[in-house]
Amino acid sequence: MVHKILFWSGFGVAVRLWQLGIEMRPFFNKESLWAYPLFAAAGGSFGYWLTGVESRQMKVLADRRSNLLEKRRRRAEREGLPEKVEKGGILGSSS
């Protein structure tokens, strides 16, 4: 989680540097130093939000996967087929 927040904070600072480069203004002007923490905070908050989105998506995917596996198990019991055991990681699939 922290690495994503740090990455997006750095991205916010890079956006500020890019903005000043486009405007051909000095990077470290005393009057504009306040903007760097502002851009870093905006990027960091986006990274924090994105971490929450990712965790919710992974939860939805895990729930969906368990529902599908349960549905396959019930169908195999109903049809009298041998049960296949799925192996793999969270996103792994086998055929």
Structure report:
This protein is mostly helical and 95 residues long. 71% of the residues lie in helices and 0% in strands. It contains two helices and no strands. The longest helix is centred in the middle third of the chain and has 45 residues. The two termini are 33 Å apart.
How big a fraction of the residues is strand? under 5%
What is the chain-wise order of helices and strands? Answer: HH
- Biggest β-sheet, characterized? none
What's the tally of helices?
2
What is the number of beta strands?
0
Query: Distance N terminus to C terminus?
Result: 33 Å
Report the average pLDDT across residues: 87
The whole-angstrom Rg is 24 Å
Secondary structure: helix percent: over 70%
- Estimated structural class: mainly alpha
Gross geometry: rod-shaped
The residue ranges in which pLDDT falls below 50 over 5 or more consecutive positions are: none
State the main characteristics.
95 residues; mainly alpha; 2 helices
Helix-strand blueprint:
Elements: H1 2-23, H2 35-79
Helix pairs in contact: 1-2
Could you provide a short overview of the structure?
8% of the residues are buried.
